[in-house]
Please model this.
Amino acid sequence: MSDWLFAFFHLFLLLGIIVYAFYSLIQGNILRFVVIMVLLTGYYFLVLHGAVKKEIKRKKKGKK
Model:
């Protein structure tokens, strides 16, 4: 249960940050938008990408 709470908390947090980035873009603050998106992309590749690939592999292995 705690894994689900952790995952959903981070999902909503990331979605909120993305919404804030686009809000900044709409307000005309292009630099803030770019900085936020670059940092989120870096965070994905440095922290999340390995776990996502493992989960995809695990799901595929379970279907066979």
Notes: Helices lie at 2-26, 30-63.
